[in-house]
Amino acid sequence: MKHLLILLLTVTFVSCGSTKTVRQAKKTIKGNWTLTSVTYNKTGTYNVTLLNDASKACFEGSTWQFVPNNNTGTYAINQTACNTGERYFNFTIQEVDAQTGLYDFLLKPTNEKGKSETNQGFRIKLKALSETSMQWEQTVLVDGAPFVITMNFTLQ
């Protein structure tokens, strides 16, 4: 009976915490990143507004900071022809497949105090993550067909 109780307590504690894979991803994502490029899976010229904020041209070169201990971050648009400045967000990494290491990444814009002014969030696939690079994919529907936006980051 005592062993059964210890086993149940152990399972409870393990299931309540983040998985090792998610904890490792949060550790890896911590820091300052630069969004180096934004690409699409279809050729052509598209007028895409990323995160309901700015165009691809404005986002390229933007700087991002992730603080995983409280799941917050900022990004700053730096292009002078754009609405420059710092934006705030909360993020969550949810494990999708531990074998492939792919995740769903939920990013919710907030104000400076961390409060969401809308109930809007963006689900993005964390496609690749290493010590020096990160890749996100967001799939949206355009004329009923999937349109994939890929965002490539490098660690500063």
TrEMBL record:
It comes from Hwangdonia lutea. This is Lipocalin family protein.
